[in-house]
Design goal:
This protein is mostly beta strands. The protein is built from no helices and 11 strands. Strands 2, 4, 5, 6, 9, 10 and 11 form a 7-stranded mixed beta sheet that branches. Strands 1-3-8-7 form a 4-stranded antiparallel beta sheet, with no helix packed on it. β7 (67-72) and β8 (77-82) form a beta hairpin.
Length: 120
């Protein structure tokens, strides 16, 4: 297991921006897939964006064109730049890591979550 710690959440007005960061206590492996999830009250946790070790990224439809995931392997950090925020983006955002182990990706850690609140 890898301990992940998020930061950067907060309160922002509609149309504003935030950047979330997630660091790993023991570092990320070059095989790790990193992702951001979010969970709003009463909803299931959902994938927001993911990025492979090679830098290929994938986004959920509601955030395409507004959010950007990136990683800095030297700093053992993954980021989520969130622009043009909407009230429906309000949620707790979680960092997640999966590692390639013997033929598949397996979960290796979740962060504690950081609250993002977008006011209308």
């Amino acid at each position: 297991q890898v301990q992940l710690v998020e930061s950067g959440g907060g309160l922002v007005q509609t149309g504003g921006s935030l950047r979330l960061s997630c660091g790993a206590s023991t570092g990320f492996s070059s095989n790790d897939m990193l992702a951001w999830y979010r969970q709003a009250p009463g909803n299931e946790r959902e994938l927001v964006a993911s990025i492979t070790s090679g830098g290929a990224s994938n986004y959920a439809d509601p955030v395409k064109g507004r959010f950007t995931i990136s990683r800095d392997n030297a700093k053992n950090t993954v980021y989520l730049q969130m622009n043009s925020l909407k009230p429906e983006d309000t949620a707790v955002y979680y960092c997640h890591a999966k590692r390639w182990l013997g033929g598949g990706y397996f979960p290796i850690g979740w962060g504690q979550g950081t609250q993002v609140t977008v006011s209308s």
